[in-house]
Amino acid sequence: MSCSRRSFFGSISLGAAAGLLWPVTGSSQPIDLEPSRNNQNDGLIRLNSNENAYGPSPSVAQAIMSVVGSANRYSRMKYPALIEQVAVEDHVRPEEVLLGCGSTDILRMAAFAFLGRGKRLIQALPTFEGIEHYARALDSEVISISLTSTFAHDLDEMLARTKSSSGLLYICNPNNPTASLTPRQDLEEFIRRLPASIFVVIDEAYHHYAGGSAMYASFISHRLDNERIIVTRTFSKVYGLAGLRLGYAVASPKTIGQMRMFAIEDSVNTIATHAAGAALRDHEALSASIQRNSNDRQEFFNQAMARSLKPIDSHANFVMLDTFHPAGDVVEHFRKNHVLIGPTFPPMDTHIRVSLGSQDEMNAFWRTWDMIPWSKNIMRH
Length: 381
Prior knowledge:
Layout: H1 5-11, H2 14-18, E1 45-47, H3 58-66, H4 79-90, E2 97-100, H5 103-114, E3 120-125, H6 130-137, E4 141-146, H7 155-160, E5 168-172, H8 184-193, E6 199-203, E7 229-234, E8 247-250, H9 253-260, H10 270-281, H11 283-306, E9 318-322, H12 327-336, E10 339-341, E11 351-355, H13 359-370
Parallel strand pairs: 1-10, 3-4, 3-5, 5-6, 6-7
Antiparallel strand pairs: 2-8, 7-8, 9-11
Helix pairs in contact: 3-10, 4-10, 5-6
């Protein structure tokens, strides 16, 4: 990651940070003094990367600005305090926590620790592709299993494809790109039946958005006594810190030790450590962010239903819906109208993934949808 000091101040001034106002009531509407979220100045509306459209809370923005003057210092002395803070927040031991440059970096460490030639990665299709890229770079076999008709992981088929040489099984829950859940009870039974040589990565990037569903429980807050389970979390989503790149793993000390051997020294930067600490302390902002996303998600469903669309039930900050037309053509239509949405996700070739944005951004999305010539005839399907 690279960002010059000049470009940083160009995107958020001291005055803007000091005057930052951020809604904490669950309202979807940002208020007037909030700085622009479109720092690229290219006129594009970005609904393509599952980012938090509202950015960090005021307390986190203040923490970021307060530490800019320390950017000349390495952050390694700050790691123990942040690890301790994460451990307290998640009710685990510090030796069970590993920091990384985004949770994608955690996936890289897991791949390097438990994959390689002659080993196998088993994953869903479609799912987040990060760990697959590392597996292929390590010359591991990649087995991708289609989701079930309810968009859950097909655990029976995954189990059938495991064998003693397998190294890693990846479960993204809620899943990206479908925002769907695989029931916790099913996952527990599945893990109990896996061969002892297989490690399981459970990616909880969207954990905070999953809510109180009876189907869902985090593998951090409700742990299994199994040292082969690695849970990943990120500060990119609910905390609005995607650009600072910080994630972490929770696993047994032995497993953390195996992964740490592949960590990049000083991979977590000074600004990220301060921002994360402030984010973990700001419980009110966290609750407000979750509620606002729930409101925005419901409004998306309201608009979709009014157009006779039926999205997949979402437990994240994005929604996937069937357009009944080639997804690539729909993505291109939006791009031509300056709205970026997610890429195509084979084999779901008629589905599009839409990240939730601000009210103005979602209004632009629906205006652009209504410009599609066949959109008024969707009820025929």
